[in-house]
Protein backbone atom coordinates (compact mmCIF):
# COMPACT_ATOMS: atom_id res chain seq x y z
CA UNK A 1 0.00 0.00 0.00
CA UNK A 2 1.32 3.44 -0.91
CA UNK A 3 1.49 6.24 1.63
CA UNK A 4 -1.36 8.17 0.01
CA UNK A 5 -3.93 5.37 -0.41
CA UNK A 6 -5.33 5.54 3.15
CA UNK A 7 -5.38 9.34 2.90
CA UNK A 8 -7.46 9.16 -0.27
CA UNK A 9 -9.86 6.65 1.28
CA UNK A 10 -10.48 9.07 4.15
CA UNK A 11 -11.07 11.94 1.71
CA UNK A 12 -13.68 9.84 -0.10
CA UNK A 13 -15.41 9.10 3.20
CA UNK A 14 -15.52 12.72 4.32
CA UNK A 15 -16.50 14.24 0.97
CA UNK A 16 -19.18 11.91 -0.33
CA UNK A 17 -20.58 12.51 -3.79
CA UNK A 18 -18.07 15.22 -4.70
CA UNK A 19 -16.71 13.40 -7.74
CA UNK A 20 -14.81 16.29 -9.35
CA UNK A 21 -13.09 17.00 -6.04
CA UNK A 22 -12.17 13.31 -5.69
CA UNK A 23 -10.69 13.36 -9.20
CA UNK A 24 -8.62 16.49 -8.56
CA UNK A 25 -7.27 15.16 -5.25
CA UNK A 26 -6.42 11.75 -6.67
CA UNK A 27 -4.57 13.29 -9.62
CA UNK A 28 -2.30 15.10 -7.16
CA UNK A 29 -1.96 12.40 -4.50
CA UNK A 30 -0.91 9.64 -6.90
CA UNK A 31 2.21 11.67 -7.75
CA UNK A 32 3.28 12.48 -4.16
CA UNK A 33 4.63 9.15 -2.87
CA UNK A 34 8.23 9.93 -3.93
CA UNK A 35 8.09 13.24 -2.03
CA UNK A 36 6.63 11.72 1.14
CA UNK A 37 9.19 8.89 1.10
CA UNK A 38 12.03 11.36 0.69
CA UNK A 39 10.64 13.83 3.25
CA UNK A 40 9.07 11.98 6.20
CA UNK A 41 8.64 15.23 8.14
CA UNK A 42 5.75 16.03 5.79
CA UNK A 43 4.02 12.79 6.80
CA UNK A 44 4.60 13.46 10.51
CA UNK A 45 3.11 16.95 10.16
CA UNK A 46 0.05 15.57 8.34
CA UNK A 47 0.61 18.07 5.53
CA UNK A 48 -1.45 16.21 2.95
CA UNK A 49 -4.43 15.72 5.29
CA UNK A 50 -4.39 19.40 6.24
CA UNK A 51 -4.01 20.54 2.66
CA UNK A 52 -7.02 18.51 1.47
CA UNK A 53 -9.34 20.11 4.04
CA UNK A 54 -10.33 23.71 3.15
CA UNK A 55 -9.61 26.37 5.75
CA UNK A 56 -13.17 27.62 5.27
CA UNK A 57 -16.25 26.64 3.22
CA UNK A 58 -19.05 29.17 2.78
CA UNK A 59 -22.47 28.52 1.23
CA UNK A 60 -25.25 31.11 1.13
CA UNK A 61 -28.65 32.02 -0.32
CA UNK A 62 -28.79 34.47 -3.26
CA UNK A 63 -32.34 35.83 -3.81
CA UNK A 64 -33.00 38.12 -6.78
CA UNK A 65 -35.82 39.32 -9.06
CA UNK A 66 -36.04 38.98 -12.83
CA UNK A 67 -37.35 41.65 -15.21
CA UNK A 68 -40.91 40.37 -14.74
CA UNK A 69 -40.69 40.82 -10.98
CA UNK A 70 -40.56 37.09 -10.25
CA UNK A 71 -38.31 36.01 -7.38
CA UNK A 72 -35.55 33.44 -7.87
CA UNK A 73 -33.27 31.84 -5.29
CA UNK A 74 -29.80 30.52 -6.13
CA UNK A 75 -27.00 29.15 -3.99
CA UNK A 76 -23.63 30.89 -3.72
CA UNK A 77 -20.31 29.40 -2.62
CA UNK A 78 -16.83 30.47 -1.60
CA UNK A 79 -14.26 27.85 -0.61
CA UNK A 80 -11.18 29.42 0.98
CA UNK A 81 -8.76 26.53 0.67
CA UNK A 82 -5.28 27.72 1.63
CA UNK A 83 -3.86 31.09 2.65
CA UNK A 84 -0.39 29.88 3.61
CA UNK A 85 1.29 31.68 0.67
CA UNK A 86 -0.95 34.74 0.57
CA UNK A 87 -4.60 35.84 0.48
CA UNK A 88 -7.01 33.35 -1.04
CA UNK A 89 -7.09 33.89 -4.81
CA UNK A 90 -9.36 32.32 -7.40
CA UNK A 91 -12.28 33.01 -9.66
CA UNK A 92 -16.07 33.02 -9.39
CA UNK A 93 -18.06 30.73 -11.70
CA UNK A 94 -21.72 31.36 -12.56
CA UNK A 95 -23.13 28.22 -14.18
CA UNK A 96 -26.05 25.84 -13.45
CA UNK A 97 -23.59 22.98 -12.82
CA UNK A 98 -21.90 24.73 -9.89
CA UNK A 99 -22.07 22.84 -6.59
CA UNK A 100 -19.81 22.48 -3.56
CA UNK A 101 -17.84 19.59 -5.07
CA UNK A 102 -17.01 21.52 -8.23
CA UNK A 103 -15.99 24.61 -6.27
CA UNK A 104 -13.77 22.47 -4.04
CA UNK A 105 -12.11 20.81 -7.03
CA UNK A 106 -11.39 24.21 -8.56
CA UNK A 107 -10.13 25.61 -5.25
CA UNK A 108 -7.86 22.62 -4.64
CA UNK A 109 -6.31 22.98 -8.10
CA UNK A 110 -5.90 26.70 -7.45
CA UNK A 111 -3.58 26.07 -4.48
CA UNK A 112 -0.92 24.46 -6.68
CA UNK A 113 -1.50 26.67 -9.71
CA UNK A 114 -1.04 29.82 -7.65
CA UNK A 115 2.04 28.42 -5.94
CA UNK A 116 3.63 27.63 -9.30
CA UNK A 117 3.41 31.28 -10.38
CA UNK A 118 5.91 32.22 -7.68
CA UNK A 119 3.56 35.01 -6.59
CA UNK A 120 2.39 35.45 -2.95
CA UNK A 121 -1.18 34.19 -3.39
CA UNK A 122 -3.15 31.40 -1.76
CA UNK A 123 -5.91 29.27 -3.26
CA UNK A 124 -9.68 29.62 -3.28
CA UNK A 125 -12.68 29.46 -5.60
CA UNK A 126 -16.35 30.41 -5.62
CA UNK A 127 -19.47 30.87 -7.66
CA UNK A 128 -23.17 30.15 -7.88
CA UNK A 129 -25.58 27.83 -9.68
CA UNK A 130 -26.93 30.85 -11.59
CA UNK A 131 -27.15 30.71 -15.39
CA UNK A 132 -26.43 34.12 -16.97
CA UNK A 133 -27.28 32.82 -20.46
CA UNK A 134 -30.30 34.65 -21.85
CA UNK A 135 -30.52 37.08 -18.92
CA UNK A 136 -30.66 40.83 -19.41
CA UNK A 137 -27.97 43.16 -18.13
CA UNK A 138 -30.39 44.39 -15.44
CA UNK A 139 -31.09 40.83 -14.24
CA UNK A 140 -27.38 40.03 -14.09
CA UNK A 141 -26.74 43.26 -12.18
CA UNK A 142 -29.41 42.40 -9.60
CA UNK A 143 -28.02 38.90 -9.18
CA UNK A 144 -24.45 40.16 -8.77
CA UNK A 145 -25.54 42.75 -6.22
CA UNK A 146 -27.38 40.11 -4.17
CA UNK A 147 -24.41 37.75 -4.41
CA UNK A 148 -21.96 40.41 -3.23
CA UNK A 149 -24.25 41.48 -0.38
CA UNK A 150 -23.25 38.24 1.36
CA UNK A 151 -19.82 37.64 -0.16
CA UNK A 152 -18.44 41.02 0.94
CA UNK A 153 -18.27 39.76 4.55
CA UNK A 154 -15.64 37.20 3.60
CA UNK A 155 -13.31 38.99 1.15
CA UNK A 156 -10.76 41.81 1.13
CA UNK A 157 -7.44 42.66 -0.50
CA UNK A 158 -5.51 41.01 2.37
CA UNK A 159 -8.01 38.19 2.92
CA UNK A 160 -9.58 36.82 -0.26
CA UNK A 161 -9.43 38.27 -3.78
CA UNK A 162 -11.94 36.77 -6.25
CA UNK A 163 -11.84 37.15 -10.03
CA UNK A 164 -13.82 35.90 -13.02
CA UNK A 165 -14.32 32.41 -14.43
CA UNK A 166 -17.00 30.79 -16.60
CA UNK A 167 -20.04 33.09 -16.67
CA UNK A 168 -18.20 35.92 -14.91
CA UNK A 169 -16.51 38.43 -17.19
CA UNK A 170 -15.86 42.15 -17.13
CA UNK A 171 -19.55 43.03 -16.91
CA UNK A 172 -20.12 40.86 -13.85
CA UNK A 173 -16.89 41.99 -12.14
CA UNK A 174 -18.06 45.57 -12.60
CA UNK A 175 -21.41 44.93 -10.94
CA UNK A 176 -19.76 42.96 -8.13
CA UNK A 177 -17.17 45.67 -7.47
CA UNK A 178 -19.79 48.41 -7.51
CA UNK A 179 -21.85 46.62 -4.87
CA UNK A 180 -18.77 45.96 -2.72
CA UNK A 181 -17.85 49.66 -2.91
CA UNK A 182 -21.41 50.71 -2.01
CA UNK A 183 -21.63 48.37 1.01
CA UNK A 184 -18.16 49.00 2.44
CA UNK A 185 -17.78 52.70 1.53
CA UNK A 186 -14.25 51.87 0.31
CA UNK A 187 -12.72 52.00 -3.17
CA UNK A 188 -10.60 48.95 -2.36
CA UNK A 189 -9.23 48.24 -5.83
CA UNK A 190 -7.35 45.10 -4.78
CA UNK A 191 -10.45 43.23 -3.60
CA UNK A 192 -11.31 41.92 -7.09
CA UNK A 193 -9.26 41.35 -10.22
CA UNK A 194 -10.35 41.35 -13.82
CA UNK A 195 -11.57 44.94 -13.47
CA UNK A 196 -11.84 47.39 -16.36
CA UNK A 197 -8.53 49.06 -17.19
CA UNK A 198 -10.02 52.52 -16.59
CA UNK A 199 -10.92 51.72 -12.96
CA UNK A 200 -8.07 49.63 -11.58
CA UNK A 201 -7.74 46.73 -13.97
CA UNK A 202 -4.60 45.48 -15.64
CA UNK A 203 -3.64 45.56 -19.27
CA UNK A 204 -3.40 42.02 -20.71
CA UNK A 205 -5.63 40.48 -18.01
CA UNK A 206 -8.33 39.62 -20.53
CA UNK A 207 -5.80 37.89 -22.75
CA UNK A 208 -3.68 36.35 -20.01
CA UNK A 209 -5.08 32.81 -19.58
CA UNK A 210 -5.19 32.08 -23.31
CA UNK A 211 -1.87 33.79 -23.99
CA UNK A 212 -0.25 32.00 -21.07
CA UNK A 213 -1.46 28.60 -22.24
CA UNK A 214 0.09 29.13 -25.66
CA UNK A 215 3.31 30.52 -24.19
CA UNK A 216 3.60 27.41 -22.00
CA UNK A 217 2.95 25.23 -25.04
CA UNK A 218 5.70 27.05 -26.92
CA UNK A 219 8.11 26.28 -24.07
CA UNK A 220 7.11 22.60 -24.18
CA UNK A 221 7.86 22.49 -27.90
CA UNK A 222 11.12 24.40 -27.43
CA UNK A 223 12.31 21.77 -24.94
CA UNK A 224 11.88 19.25 -27.77
CA UNK A 225 13.66 21.40 -30.33
CA UNK A 226 10.47 22.65 -32.06
CA UNK A 227 8.35 25.80 -32.22
CA UNK A 228 4.71 26.69 -32.82
CA UNK A 229 5.48 28.17 -36.22
CA UNK A 230 3.77 26.07 -38.90
CA UNK A 231 1.92 23.81 -36.45
CA UNK A 232 -1.79 22.99 -36.79
CA UNK A 233 -3.82 23.55 -33.61
CA UNK A 234 -7.23 22.31 -32.51
CA UNK A 235 -8.83 24.47 -29.82
CA UNK A 236 -12.09 23.74 -27.99
CA UNK A 237 -14.29 26.48 -26.62
CA UNK A 238 -14.94 30.00 -27.87
CA UNK A 239 -14.90 31.95 -24.64
CA UNK A 240 -12.21 34.18 -23.25
CA UNK A 241 -9.52 31.49 -22.89
CA UNK A 242 -10.08 29.97 -26.33
CA UNK A 243 -10.24 33.29 -28.18
CA UNK A 244 -6.96 34.58 -26.79
CA UNK A 245 -5.23 31.22 -27.12
CA UNK A 246 -6.15 31.39 -30.80
CA UNK A 247 -4.85 34.97 -31.01
CA UNK A 248 -1.47 34.20 -29.45
CA UNK A 249 -1.06 30.95 -31.44
CA UNK A 250 -1.65 32.88 -34.68
CA UNK A 251 0.86 35.52 -33.61
CA UNK A 252 3.44 32.74 -33.17
CA UNK A 253 2.82 31.33 -36.65
CA UNK A 254 0.40 28.48 -35.94
CA UNK A 255 -2.80 27.70 -37.86
CA UNK A 256 -5.83 27.17 -35.61
CA UNK A 257 -8.55 25.19 -37.40
CA UNK A 258 -11.26 24.64 -34.76
CA UNK A 259 -13.30 26.27 -32.02
CA UNK A 260 -16.57 25.25 -30.38
CA UNK A 261 -19.43 26.00 -28.03
CA UNK A 262 -22.16 23.92 -26.41
CA UNK A 263 -24.03 23.62 -29.75
CA UNK A 264 -21.12 22.09 -31.71
CA UNK A 265 -17.84 22.98 -33.37
CA UNK A 266 -16.50 24.57 -36.54
CA UNK A 267 -13.66 23.40 -38.76
CA UNK A 268 -12.00 26.19 -40.72
CA UNK A 269 -9.13 24.77 -42.76
CA UNK A 270 -8.04 28.28 -43.80
CA UNK A 271 -7.52 29.16 -40.14
CA UNK A 272 -9.97 30.74 -37.71
CA UNK A 273 -10.94 34.32 -38.62
CA UNK A 274 -10.27 35.87 -35.22
CA UNK A 275 -11.97 39.20 -35.92
CA UNK A 276 -15.17 37.45 -36.94
CA UNK A 277 -15.04 35.11 -33.94
CA UNK A 278 -14.59 38.07 -31.56
CA UNK A 279 -17.48 39.94 -33.15
CA UNK A 280 -19.84 36.97 -32.75
CA UNK A 281 -18.76 35.90 -29.27
CA UNK A 282 -17.58 39.06 -27.49
CA UNK A 283 -19.81 41.71 -29.07
CA UNK A 284 -23.01 39.96 -30.12
CA UNK A 285 -22.78 36.98 -27.70
CA UNK A 286 -23.91 34.72 -30.53
CA UNK A 287 -23.48 31.01 -31.28
CA UNK A 288 -20.58 29.36 -33.05
CA UNK A 289 -22.89 28.17 -35.84
CA UNK A 290 -23.14 31.82 -36.94
CA UNK A 291 -19.38 31.82 -37.52
CA UNK A 292 -19.71 28.85 -39.89
CA UNK A 293 -22.57 30.50 -41.80
CA UNK A 294 -20.73 33.79 -42.31
CA UNK A 295 -17.29 32.33 -42.92
CA UNK A 296 -18.33 29.41 -45.11
CA UNK A 297 -16.67 27.00 -42.68
CA UNK A 298 -17.97 23.56 -41.70
CA UNK A 299 -20.22 23.38 -38.63
CA UNK A 300 -20.68 20.04 -36.86
CA UNK A 301 -23.43 19.89 -34.21
CA UNK A 302 -22.64 18.18 -30.90
CA UNK A 303 -19.29 17.11 -29.49
CA UNK A 304 -16.34 15.83 -31.50
CA UNK A 305 -13.82 18.63 -31.96
CA UNK A 306 -11.04 16.14 -31.14
CA UNK A 307 -11.77 14.18 -34.32
CA UNK A 308 -9.99 16.93 -36.25
CA UNK A 309 -6.32 16.06 -36.99
CA UNK A 310 -3.82 18.45 -35.38
CA UNK A 311 -0.25 18.76 -34.10
CA UNK A 312 -1.26 20.52 -30.88
CA UNK A 313 -4.53 20.27 -28.93
CA UNK A 314 -5.66 22.94 -26.46
CA UNK A 315 -8.83 21.99 -24.53
CA UNK A 316 -10.17 25.37 -23.40
CA UNK A 317 -13.85 24.70 -22.65
CA UNK A 318 -14.71 22.89 -19.41
CA UNK A 319 -13.85 20.00 -17.10
CA UNK A 320 -13.70 16.42 -18.43
CA UNK A 321 -14.42 17.41 -22.03
CA UNK A 322 -11.55 15.35 -23.48
CA UNK A 323 -12.21 11.64 -22.90
CA UNK A 324 -10.14 8.47 -23.29
CA UNK A 325 -11.72 7.85 -26.70
CA UNK A 326 -10.92 11.43 -27.76
CA UNK A 327 -7.32 10.96 -26.65
CA UNK A 328 -6.95 7.77 -28.68
CA UNK A 329 -8.32 9.57 -31.72
CA UNK A 330 -5.88 12.45 -31.27
CA UNK A 331 -2.96 10.04 -30.89
CA UNK A 332 -3.98 8.12 -34.04
CA UNK A 333 -4.12 11.43 -35.90
CA UNK A 334 -0.59 12.36 -34.82
CA UNK A 335 -0.99 14.89 -32.00
CA UNK A 336 2.35 15.79 -30.39
CA UNK A 337 1.44 18.19 -27.58
CA UNK A 338 -1.63 18.78 -25.41
CA UNK A 339 -1.95 21.68 -22.95
CA UNK A 340 -5.00 22.37 -20.79
CA UNK A 341 -6.42 25.86 -21.17
CA UNK A 342 -9.46 25.00 -19.04
CA UNK A 343 -9.47 23.54 -15.53
CA UNK A 344 -9.15 19.72 -15.61
CA UNK A 345 -10.66 19.33 -19.10
CA UNK A 346 -8.91 15.98 -19.65
CA UNK A 347 -10.13 12.83 -17.91
CA UNK A 348 -7.56 10.73 -15.99
CA UNK A 349 -7.95 7.93 -18.55
CA UNK A 350 -7.18 10.36 -21.39
CA UNK A 351 -4.10 11.66 -19.59
CA UNK A 352 -2.78 8.09 -19.33
CA UNK A 353 -3.33 7.56 -23.07
CA UNK A 354 -1.26 10.65 -23.87
CA UNK A 355 1.53 9.75 -21.47
CA UNK A 356 1.76 6.15 -22.69
CA UNK A 357 1.92 7.39 -26.31
CA UNK A 358 4.74 9.83 -25.52
CA UNK A 359 2.59 12.91 -26.14
CA UNK A 360 3.75 15.92 -24.12
CA UNK A 361 0.86 16.75 -21.78
CA UNK A 362 0.59 19.85 -19.55
CA UNK A 363 -2.05 20.01 -16.78
CA UNK A 364 -4.13 23.13 -16.29
CA UNK A 365 -2.51 24.01 -12.98
CA UNK A 366 0.63 24.80 -15.02
CA UNK A 367 -0.58 25.62 -18.51
CA UNK A 368 -3.48 27.94 -17.63
CA UNK A 369 -1.81 29.74 -14.72
CA UNK A 370 -1.31 32.87 -16.81
CA UNK A 371 -4.69 34.25 -15.80
CA UNK A 372 -4.14 34.14 -12.07
CA UNK A 373 -0.52 35.27 -12.53
CA UNK A 374 -1.72 38.42 -14.26
CA UNK A 375 -4.37 38.86 -11.58
CA UNK A 376 -1.52 38.95 -9.08
CA UNK A 377 0.17 41.55 -11.27
CA UNK A 378 -3.08 43.53 -11.16
CA UNK A 379 -2.97 43.31 -7.36
CA UNK A 380 0.61 44.69 -7.46
CA UNK A 381 -0.50 47.63 -9.57
CA UNK A 382 -3.45 48.33 -7.26
CA UNK A 383 -1.22 48.23 -4.17
CA UNK A 384 1.22 50.73 -5.67
CA UNK A 385 -1.49 52.89 -7.33
CA UNK A 386 0.26 52.23 -10.63
CA UNK A 387 -0.74 51.18 -14.15
CA UNK A 388 1.57 49.26 -16.47
CA UNK A 389 1.62 49.15 -20.26
CA UNK A 390 0.31 46.15 -22.19
CA UNK A 391 3.81 45.34 -23.46
CA UNK A 392 5.37 45.39 -19.98
CA UNK A 393 2.58 43.27 -18.49
CA UNK A 394 2.79 40.75 -21.33
CA UNK A 395 6.55 40.47 -20.84
CA UNK A 396 6.03 39.81 -17.13
CA UNK A 397 3.48 37.14 -18.07
CA UNK A 398 5.92 35.52 -20.50
CA UNK A 399 8.62 35.41 -17.81
CA UNK A 400 6.21 33.81 -15.34
CA UNK A 401 5.12 31.14 -17.84
CA UNK A 402 8.77 30.31 -18.62
CA UNK A 403 9.42 30.04 -14.88
CA UNK A 404 6.46 27.70 -14.42
CA UNK A 405 7.54 25.52 -17.33
CA UNK A 406 11.13 25.30 -16.14
CA UNK A 407 10.05 24.56 -12.57
CA UNK A 408 7.78 21.71 -13.73
CA UNK A 409 10.42 20.36 -16.11
CA UNK A 410 13.30 20.33 -13.61
CA UNK A 411 11.15 19.00 -10.75
CA UNK A 412 9.98 16.08 -12.90
CA UNK A 413 13.62 15.27 -13.69
CA UNK A 414 14.60 15.58 -10.03
CA UNK A 415 11.99 12.98 -9.05
CA UNK A 416 12.84 10.54 -11.83
CA UNK A 417 10.01 11.35 -14.25
CA UNK A 418 11.63 13.41 -17.05
CA UNK A 419 9.14 15.05 -19.40
CA UNK A 420 6.16 14.32 -17.12
CA UNK A 421 4.59 17.74 -16.58
CA UNK A 422 1.85 16.30 -14.34
CA UNK A 423 4.41 15.00 -11.85
CA UNK A 424 6.49 18.15 -12.16
CA UNK A 425 3.59 20.56 -11.63
CA UNK A 426 2.09 18.65 -8.72
CA UNK A 427 5.33 18.20 -6.82
CA UNK A 428 6.72 21.68 -7.49
CA UNK A 429 3.50 23.32 -6.26
CA UNK A 430 3.12 20.94 -3.34
CA UNK A 431 6.66 21.49 -2.02
CA UNK A 432 6.23 25.27 -2.02
CA UNK A 433 2.99 25.03 -0.05
CA UNK A 434 4.23 22.27 2.27
CA UNK A 435 7.39 24.17 3.21
CA UNK A 436 5.33 27.25 4.10
CA UNK A 437 2.94 25.13 6.19
CA UNK A 438 5.85 23.65 8.14
CA UNK A 439 7.29 27.10 8.75
CA UNK A 440 4.00 28.56 10.04
CA UNK A 441 3.10 25.81 12.48
CA UNK A 442 -0.03 23.78 13.12
CA UNK A 443 -2.90 26.08 12.09
How does this structure look, described?
- The chain is globular.
- The chain has 18 helices and 13 strands.
- Strand 12 (337-339), helix 14 (348-356) and strand 13 (360-362) form a beta-alpha-beta unit.
- The chain has 443 residues and is α/β, with parallel strands linked by helices.
Can I get a quick summary?
This protein is α/β, with parallel strands linked by helices and 443 residues long. 48% of the residues lie in helices and 15% in strands.
Number of strands: 13
Strand content: 5-15%
Q: Count of DSSP helices? A: 18
The global form is globular
Low-confidence stretches: none
Helix residue percentage: 40-55%
What class would the helix/strand composition place it in?
A: alpha/beta
Largest sheet: 5 strands, mixed
Give the averaged pLDDT, no decimals. Answer: 97
**Mind telling me the C-alpha Rg?**
21 Å
Widest sheet: strand order? 1-2-4-3-5
For the termini, the CA-CA separation is 29 Å
Descriptors:
five-stranded mixed sheet, alpha/beta, 443 residues, five-stranded parallel sheet, single chain
Helices, strands, pairings?
Layout: H1 5-14, H2 19-29, H3 33-38, H4 40-44, H5 47-51, E1 56-65, E2 71-82, E3 88-94, H6 100-116, E4 123-128, H7 137-151, E5 160-163, H8 170-184, H9 205-223, E6 232-235, H10 240-251, E7 255-256, E8 258-261, E9 264-267, H11 274-283, H12 288-295, E10 298-301, E11 312-314, H13 324-332, E12 337-339, H14 348-356, E13 360-362, H15 364-367, H16 370-383, H17 390-414, H18 421-440
